[in-house]
Amino acid sequence: MEINFYLRYVIMALVISVGVAALTTPLSIRIANICGIIDKPKDARRVHKKPIPRFGGMGIFLGATAAMIIPAGMNEQIKIAMLGGMLMYGLGVIDDIVDIRPITKFIGQFLIASMVYSTGIRIRFISNYFGSTHVDSHANVILGAGVAYIFTVIWIVGITNAVNLMDGLDGLAAGSTAIMALSLAYIAYIHGARIGAMPVCIALVAVAGGCLGFLPYNFSPAKTFMGDGGALYLGYMIAVLSVISPLKRATFIGAIVPIMTLAVPIFDTGMAMLRRTLKHESIMSADKGHLHHHLMAAGFGQRRSVLVIYGIVGIMGMVAVLISRELYKDAVFLALIAFLYLSIIMIPKRKKKGIKRIITQDVMELEKEYFVEYLNAERERRKIERGEIEETQSDEKSE
Fold first, then answer.
1. Cα–Cα distance between 123 and 114 in angstroms, integer?
2. 147-204, pLDDT tens digit by residue?
3. DSSP-derived 3-state class of residue 147
4. Are residues 196 and 54 in the same domain?
5. Residue 38 forms part of a structural domain
6. Which helix (H) or strand (E) holds 53?
7. Could you give the residue ranges of the DSSP H alpha helices within the chain?
8. Are residues 240 and 381 in the same domain?
């Protein structure tokens, strides 16, 4: 009976979030055109060729917020998450309008994450692998206030920026976030009646619904972009709701499930930070070394590149579901498949490149390599065709 009661709220949250996002996104396009909130292709990093409105995050924000009003009364922490989400969205909107400096944006994220921590939403423990004596009844290390603060802020700010970095192709961030949110929501649902995770499940469904309502306007060819407002909001909500979830109870499962669900953006962000460090550049600088850039350089095009990454994100979402059910062998097998695909994307065809070269390689260089490869293949094909024509002509003469 309890599950059926919550299931009605889950369906209601999904319908409201999809509907509100779908109805308000066209309005956001109109506002963007009036106010000049337009993304212009001013550098080589961008893949679109014409100016496109970048205020679509308004539809995602309004859709998710409208749907989350339903469960907000059930859980005080979700109200706090919604308040932080409003602040994070506002920070992103300011960046969309006036293009604030990266360090200023980072400070704003840091302050919002600190505010969330001060309200009691925090990472309180980690799994105990080394036999520490400071553990609870489930053999998990209880973190002190300072360490818990560092872990919580790094998690919220890190995931917020990881999702923002994914917003490089039409539909990539919105679709990937929807998959991640639905994976976490399903995990909360199947364990919800037992551990009280249903309000978190409803909130995650609301976030996913906001993405799904926005996606028809954002999938290639995009009519609008979500902008930093939408990307920062989505990253923040995924990060905070995964911390609130009772699935972070004192078990190994609670620690690893959110990480597995968010493995693709975490991997991409980690590689970006390593790549920029090795190149002696700021870790907050922009480049063309992300997963989607590698797929585009290989000639997949926007739609197929996005669908490939959707597939990998979906596999990792299923890994998280299997881990939550303690099916570790199955989860490891699927995770290996996902990381095999990631390796294929990141490692170039040409052999004898050092690991540093692979990490720091410029995707524009890869594009040239693929283009040269294509030209060579065309030359060979034409040589073969000419050879076959000459053979045919000589056969006809001999007859």
1. 12
2. 889 889 998 998 898 888 887 788 888 999 999 999 989 888 887 655 567 888 899 9
3. helix
4. yes
5. yes
6. strand 52-53
7. 2-35, 57-72, 76-98, 102-118, 145-166, 172-195, 198-218, 227-244, 252-261, 263-278, 291-297, 301-324, 328-346, 355-360, 363-398
8. no
| Any domain includes 193 | yes
* Segments forming the whole domain that contains residue 32: 2-250
Cis peptide before 26 (omega within 30 of 0): no
Phi then psi for residue 233, to 5 deg, are: -65, -45
User: Lowest-pLDDT range, 163-167, 307-311, 368-372?
Assistant: 368-372
pLDDT tens, residue by residue, 202-211 = 999 999 999 9
For the chain, how many structural domains are there in total? Answer: 2
User: Among all chains, which residue has been given the structure tokens 């209880």?
Assistant: 142
pLDDT of residue 91: 95
pLDDT winner (highest mean) among 30-44, 101-115, 246-260, 334-348? 101-115
Structure tokens at 47: 């893949």
Mean pLDDT for all residues in the chain? 79
Q: What is the rounded distance in angstroms from the CA atom of residue 162 to the CA atom of residue 232?
A: 9
Distance, CA of 309 to CA of 338 (rounded, Å): 10
Q: Is residue 199 part of a domain?
A: yes
Q: Assess if residue 214 is contained within a domain.
A: yes
At 226, the pLDDT band (50, 70, 90 cuts) reads very high
From 233, 250, 267, the end of a domain falls on 250
* Best CA proximity match to 306, nearest among 194, 215, 188, 391: 215
> Which region holds residue 301: left if phi is over 0, alpha if psi is between -120 and 50, else beta?
left
Q: 373 and 241, same structural domain? A: no
Domain stops at, among 250, 280, 309: 250
Main-chain phi, psi angles of 8, to 5 degrees: -60, -40
Residue 133 is predicted with a pLDDT of 45
Q: Are 208 and 14 in contact (CB under 8 A)?
A: yes
